[in-house]
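Q: Please design a sequence for this.
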């Protein structure tokens, strides 16, 4: 296995969606990194809510005074033949591997030793096993490049949505800056699978979601 001791700095790249998990991961990493060491990388994969997600990414960066924010266009990841899951995420290990490899390539380019993937598997053992396997395969593929190579990490992997919310509450994150809805707009639709999952997570955690406001119809 390659090590990352030769990396030029102790910075971290967070694969950032503008959503809840990305927000919590950012706050978590700020406990061990200075703002100048934080790099937020957004993969623009062609989803219809891309502009809204990017807007919330930048809001979070502004809140935490993070200046290193980059966007990379990878629309083919979302448009591949395997389609998408009910929550709008690309399906299949091929899409995930591509996203992780882009993150590693970005980190390598900027001599950064860590890449954080804010993935959570709802406590499902099979999902965790698949995600872990993909990470291991991507790390092994990265090791074919001359060292030092950055390493993939996923600190939220074993958490479910409720636990992510509870962790975020401990970190005092600004929930209103995280976008979950599958649709673009001023307010979340509160009807799509992602909105319902977010609502359930806050309810189970016994917390109020500041985005629980007026309902808007999804954009056609």
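A: Design:
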């Amino acid at each position: 296995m390659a090590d990352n001791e030769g990396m030029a700095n102790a910075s971290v790249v967070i694969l950032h969606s503008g959503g809840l998990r990305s927000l919590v991961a950012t706050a978590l990493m700020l406990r061990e990194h200075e703002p100048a060491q934080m790099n937020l990388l957004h993969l623009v994969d062609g989803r219809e809510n891309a502009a809204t997600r990017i807007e919330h990414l930048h809001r979070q960066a502004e809140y935490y005074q993070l200046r290193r924010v980059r966007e990379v266009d990878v629309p083919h990841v979302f448009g591949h033949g395997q389609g998408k899951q009910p929550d709008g995420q690309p399906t299949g290990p091929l899409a995930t591997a591509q996203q992780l490899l882009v993150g590693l390539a970005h980190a390598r380019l900027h001599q950064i030793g860590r890449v954080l993937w804010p993935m959570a598997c709802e406590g499902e053992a099979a999902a965790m096993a698949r995600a872990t396997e993909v990470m291991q395969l991507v790390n092994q593929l990265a090791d074919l490049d001359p060292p030092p190579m950055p390493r993939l990490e996923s600190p939220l992997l074993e958490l479910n949505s409720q636990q992510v919310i509870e962790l975020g509450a401990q970190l005092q994150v600004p929930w209103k800056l995280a976008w979950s809805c599958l649709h673009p707009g001023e307010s979340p639709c509160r009807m799509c699978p992602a909105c319902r999952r977010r609502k359930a997570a806050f309810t189970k955690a016994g917390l109020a979601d500041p985005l629980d406001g007026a309902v808007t119809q999804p954009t056609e």
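Q: Thanks. Anything notable?
A: Residues 120 and 193 are 16 Å apart (CA to CA). The beta strands are 9-15, 38-44, 69-73, 112-116, 151-153.
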